[in-house]
Amino acid sequence: MLETQYVFVDTEPMRAARFDVERGGLKRLLELVDHQRITVVLPTVTRREYLKKLNESIDAALEALGSLTKKHRTLALAENTPLPAVFEPIDEEAAREAVVARFNRYLDDLNPEEAETPADTLAVVLDLYFTQLAPFNDPRKKKEFPDAIALHSLARWADEEEVSIYVVSRDGDLRSYCETKTNLLHLETLGHLFALVTAEAEMVAALLASTEDEIVADVSSAFEGGGFLLEEEDGEVLGVTVESIELEEIRAQHVDPEEELVLFEVQGTINFQADIHYWDMDHAIWDSEDKVLIPFDRIEKTVRDTYEFRAYGTLSTLSKLTKVDWLDLDVDLPNVVHVSPYAEQVLPGA
Q1: Which CATH superfamily includes the segment(s) 6-195?
Q2: Would you kindly state where each structural domain of the chain is located, as residue ranges?
Q3: Fewer Cβ neighbours under 10 Å: the N or C end of the chain?
Q4: How does pLDDT run across 317-348, given as a tens digit for each residue?
């Protein structure tokens, strides 16, 4: 299961995914952000490093495309296929700008927490370099400076926020650095992250399923204690009894593994009986002087009706989301629930 909701994705997984934000792991990453399952943390320097590596990838792609069109121009003769278009000249700068703009939109959609570069970064990173500590295990690898700045920014941000961060990368130097920090947790790939998310989702689903009886009891109590209004007739709702509650969906909205809290939403249908009475206007007497109908008898009956509801809850857990501690549920009910006198009548003894 996840130990933290916060995630940093190194440039290495971005390059491995070929910066393809429309499918695969990068698309899945955005979906998890949209569903509030994870929060991306992005150091200022890493955004610049992403764009540097993206431009290098674009350079390589343009070079490969140029080589293809020179060596295999015969394919341009393949009429009635998409191939001739490949050999048409392209505006390379316009293509580059379009790719970079699309990637920047993706980063904005991730809505990351920005980890600013701390003021002491230069001194800290140089000390790591000259003492040959991670990520400078090899002193010849000066290219690790952006990684060192990013890792220091992440560690400082995690300290200030009192949280941990997953660092996703196959880079061994980043792994070595994470081993020196209690608040930076290393993962090899996005696939490992997704596996943890899936395992957590299954665990949370099982926990929520185990609380169904308590949810039903809380919804029933809240509903029966609410207000009711009889529609269409001059009368009252004397009392309401819940017959059954159908829980159609229990969905986790947010999981905080560090606080061991689950915020969730419930949707369902309440089947209830209502005891009502109202004046019998069909047998009322006409008062010719006051020009009004005067009823003398009341109709008393029990009707069966339904109400679709939503509820929002907080589940506190123990032992890393494996046991329920307590549950708090807020049932979203109006001030009054309207009851129809013409709903299905419950016959005496039924």
Answers
A1: 5'-nuclease (3.40.50.1010)
A2: 6-195, 211-346
A3: C
A4: 888 778 889 999 999 999 999 999 999 998 87
d(C-alpha 164, C-alpha 182), whole Å: 8
Residues 284-305: pLDDT tens digits?
A: 777 777 777 777 788 899 999 9
The closest alpha carbon to 174, from 129, 135, 121, 142, belongs to: 135
Determine how many CB atoms are found less than 10 A away from the CB of residue 248.
11
Residue 257 identity: P
Task: Confirm if 327 and 315 have CB atoms less than 8 A apart.
Answer: yes
Q: State in Å, rounded, how far the first CA of the chain is from the last one.
A: 50
Q: How far apart are CA 204 and CA 166, in angstroms?
A: 20
Cα 280-283-286 angle, rounded to 5 deg? 110
Question: For the chain, which ranges sit under pLDDT 50?
Answer: none
Phi, then psi, of 89 in degrees rounded to 5: -60, 145
Q: Which of 191, 17, 27 is nearest to 110 (CA)?
A: 27
Note whether 13 and 169 are within 8 A (CB): yes
pLDDT at 319: 81
Q: Which residues of 47-81 are buried (b: 16+ CB within 10 A; e: fewer)?
A: eebbbeebeeebeeeeeeeeeebeeeeeeeeeeee
